């Protein structure tokens, strides 16, 4: 509770986590802080007028007038920038309809009517300290030409009533406009769990029911429908949207909000809130969540809908076939060793090497490096897949069957170091297995190799002159915040020039093959897009830390058939190719 409250206060007070970009952050701060000061000033006046507490006088009166005027100017500047961005710059991600302009114009009219009201009051009272209210004083100078004090008094009553009508109209319309986000966004931020906790708590056995209809949505999801201001940031890096499908979390929440407001609680989510194709194409890369100003849990809302489809056996044939293969492998688990041999420094989790040749090749390179570093290691033979992909495809019972076998297998390795080449295994074993009793230290191979290099056990030599870009895998970066180990390792290789791409770290583009997705066309398009953007930045080689990213990028490179092909390598491969003493 305390951590979530601190996260809420940080977000609301700084606005940094919600708004990005210097101009846009300044714009939002002008509106939020300005309105906060104006609201505080209104409350102070109400206390003095209605409770008879006379404290706005002397220096307080002068400071009050100046601060309130500056706050009003800040709000108008912020609103002007918002209108300029939405209706002049007009980025593709933003909509520009009446629903978008109306709250901005109403807010501007409230502030302007307040300034006009102050100007008329200054004329009517001949306030000798008017210069301390610069905007009100400017209005007074303009109004003082046609008005005398008597006329100003009559006009003041009329404008005061108009200002009150505008102000209360703003309050009354807030729940039915985008202004509702002022309450819903803080509530959404407060309701969000950190991703490592959400992976465990959000998928526990007692909360494992899928979402089939609108009535099955959680309170957090319903809050998000009001918190979403349709900023479109979730579209910018979404591989499904960039691939041409009419899908983004913004669209999903907009459809869900319409159903809620119409009271259609029994409407199915799949087909009405999200298209079937988009539902099973989402790679759960979390680019939408990372960029969402209201901390939406979009990826896990999609998993909940997938669960609902699974509970009713409404899954595509390709995904059903994947589940069948997993079940068949569980039936063969009796042929696997019951427990690994203890006594090794480190254990390698092989991942799905049978179904992914890239993973097997990377694993061989890691083994070679560990041998040269003198590490006493053993390759594990787990009885089942880690289960991360089937969990994200919504088959929780199958995931838990995988977990039960693997946790039993790992039981004798308490506190042992387990290294994996797959970010998906790394995330699942590290974040989701502990709740089921697993007690091992999980490391990605880039992390472990980086540690060996730092301890001088692994001495990277010289590579051929190569300008390379490192692509951050989603399940390593956005899910686990790991961006530094691979870069530190690559920077230690002489002859390798590492360039930092525009779309890197948190802004990394998804390759389209994560989250258990079997949408081959989405992955193909995402791989082509990713390869093109990396090559535009002058990279001769692309290095990654994920076998699936490597596989998709290699397929894209083969499809492009360029005269100067780009090398697609894993972190372990680039080290293995370098001369190691």
Instruction: Detail the poorly predicted runs.
Output: 201-206
**How many strands, which pairing sense, and closed or not: the largest β-sheet?**
4 strands, parallel
Q: How much strand content do the residues show?
A: 5-15%
Q: Rg to the nearest angstrom?
A: 29 Å
Q: Roughly what is the average pLDDT, rounded to an integer?
A: 84
What does this structure look like?
The protein is α/β, with parallel strands linked by helices. The protein is elongated, with a radius of gyration of 29 Å. 55% of the residues lie in helices and 7% in strands. The two termini are 52 Å apart. It has helices spanning 2-14, 22-51, 59-89, 98-125, 134-143, 149-173, 181-191, 195-201, 219-227, 239-242, 249-261, 276-281, 287-291, 298-311, 317-331, 357-372, 388-392, 396-410, 423-432, 445-454, 485-491, 520-536, 547-560, 571-577; strands at 346-349, 377-379, 417-420, 441-444, 462-471, 494-499, 541-544, 567-570. The strands form two sheets. Strands 2-1-3-4 form a four-stranded parallel β-sheet, sandwiched between helices. Strands 6-5-7-8 form a four-stranded parallel β-sheet, sandwiched between helices. Helix 1 (2-14) runs antiparallel to helix 7 (181-191). Strand 3 (417-420), helix 19 (423-432) and strand 4 (441-444) form a beta-alpha-beta unit. It is built from 24 helices and eight strands.
């Amino acid at each position: 509770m305390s951590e979530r409250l601190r996260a809420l206060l940080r977000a609301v007070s700084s606005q940094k986590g919600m708004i990005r970009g210097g101009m846009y952050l300044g714009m939002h701060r002008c509106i939020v802080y300005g309105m906060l000061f104006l609201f505080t000033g209104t409350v102070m006046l109400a206390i003095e007028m209605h409770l008879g507490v006379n404290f706005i006088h002397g220096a307080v009166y002068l400071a009050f007038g100046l601060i309130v005027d500056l706050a009003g100017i800040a709000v108008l500047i912020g609103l002007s920038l918002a209108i300029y961005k939405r209706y002049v710059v007009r980025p593709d991600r933003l909509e520009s309809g009446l629903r978008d302009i109306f709250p901005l114009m109403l807010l501007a009219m409230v502030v302007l009517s307040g300034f006009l009201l102050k100007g008329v009051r200054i004329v009517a009272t001949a306030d000798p300290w008017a210069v301390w209210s610069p905007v009100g004083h400017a209005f007074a100078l303009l109004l003082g030409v046609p008005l005398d004090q008597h006329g100003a008094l009559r006009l003041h009553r009329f404008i005061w009533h108009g200002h009150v009508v505008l102000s209360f109209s703003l309050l009354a319309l807030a729940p039915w406009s985008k202004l509702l986000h002022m309450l819903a966004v803080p509530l959404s931020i407060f309701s969000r769990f950190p991703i490592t906790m959400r992976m465990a708590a959000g998928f526990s056995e007692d909360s494992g029911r899928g979402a089939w209809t609108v009535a099955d949505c959680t309170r957090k999801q319903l809050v998000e429908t009001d918190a979403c201001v349709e900023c479109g940031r979730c579209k910018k890096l979404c591989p499904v949207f960039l691939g041409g499908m009419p899908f983004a979390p913004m669209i999903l929440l907009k459809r869900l909000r319409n159903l809620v407001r119409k009271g259609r609680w029994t409407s199915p989510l799949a087909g009405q809130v999200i298209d079937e194709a988009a539902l099973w194409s989402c790679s759960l890369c979390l680019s939408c969540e990372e960029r969402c100003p209201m901390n939406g849990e979009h990826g896990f809302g999609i998993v909940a809908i997938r669960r609902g489809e699974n509970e009713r056996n409404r899954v595509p044939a390709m995904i059903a076939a994947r589940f069948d293969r997993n079940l068949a492998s569980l039936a063969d688990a009796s042929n696997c060793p019951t427990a690994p041999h203890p006594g090794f420094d480190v254990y390698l989790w092989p991942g799905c090497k049978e179904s992914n040749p890239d993973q097997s090749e990377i694993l061989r390179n890691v083994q070679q490096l560990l041998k040269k570093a003198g590490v006493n290691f053993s390759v594990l033979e787990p009885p089942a897949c880690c289960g991360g992909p089937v969990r994200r495809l919504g088959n929780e019972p199958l995931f838990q069957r995988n977990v039960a076998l693997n946790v039993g297998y790992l039981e004798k390795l308490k506190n042992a170091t387990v290294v994996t080449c797959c970010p998906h295994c790394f995330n699942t074993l590290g974040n989701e297995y502990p709740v089921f009793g697993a007690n091992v230290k999980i490391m990605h191979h880039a992390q472990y190799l980086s540690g060996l290099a730092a301890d001088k056990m692994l001495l990277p030599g010289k590579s051929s002159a190569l300008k390379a870009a490192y692509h951050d895998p989603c399940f390593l970066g956005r899910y686990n915040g790991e961006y530094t180990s691979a870069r530190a390792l690559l920077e230690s290789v002489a002859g390798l020039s590492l360039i930092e791409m525009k779309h890197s770290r948190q802004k990394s583009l998804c390759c389209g093959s994560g989250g258990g997705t079997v949408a081959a066309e989405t992955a193909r398009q995402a791989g082509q897009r990713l390869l093109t953007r990396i090559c535009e930045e002058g990279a001769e080689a692309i290095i990654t830390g994920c076998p699936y990213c490597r596989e998709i990028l290699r397929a894209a490179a083969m499809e492009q058939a360029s005269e100067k092909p780009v090398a697609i390598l894993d972190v372990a491969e680039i080290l293995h190719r370098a001369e190691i003493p």
